Amino acid sequence: MIVIHHLGVSQSDRIVWLMEELGLPYELKWHHRMPNRLAPPELLALHPTATAPVIQDGDKTLTESAVIVEYLCHRYGGGRFTVSPDQPNYTDYLYWMHFNNNIMGLFFAKRALGGRTEGDSALWDTLLNRREDRSYHFADQRLANSPYLAGPEFTCADVMAAFTFTSLPLFGGRAVDDLPNVRAYVERLNARPAYRKAMEIAGPGAKPPG
């Protein structure tokens, strides 16, 4: 059985969501953040990269969300929620699969600058904000013409990108109030039974069992 090592209030809740979408059994192991908000040593010890999410499948230990979702869908889901290279929307799938990483890079770069207004810091802050804003508006344009990011069907690209629009604003990320198509998209995701169950189990407001 797949073991999902879940760090509370983190992107690892997307792996729980995917497993619920696939209807596959899994074991969820909670790891609590330390008082400084960092991951605990027992989670970091699972893999040399010391990152979450982490899954264990027998003798395999995997990290990196994009790797995990593709692995699970192809190995246990018969390719569901993926797009193959011979499909016309394959490039869209690739782009939106990695959209979240782009946004997270911008998010942490902005936090490192801390809104500084002097010299090169001010220039970089302006450039980062502009790139972030363009990325979000591009997503809104995409969702004006497609119910899901990779096309008409729900895919792993949605599993990967949703955090950007749903949870990241809770931690100081860009809000989506000015993006009507993104807001409608979030409502569609919230209506999915698997998403609702995953958020109850492992979402930002979830409490560990016991």
UniProtKB/TrEMBL annotation:
Residues 86-209 form the GST C-terminal domain. The keyword Cell cycle does not apply. InterPro entries: Glutathione-S-Trfase_C-like, Glutathione-S-Trfase_C_sf, Glutathione_S-Trfase, Glutathione_S-Trfase_N, GST_C, Thioredoxin-like_sf. Keywords: Transferase. SUPFAM superfamilies: GST C-terminal domain-like, Thioredoxin-like. Residues 1-80 form the GST N-terminal domain. The keyword Kinase does not apply. GO terms for molecular function: transferase activity. It comes from the Bacteria. Transmembrane segments: none annotated. This is Glutathione S-transferase.
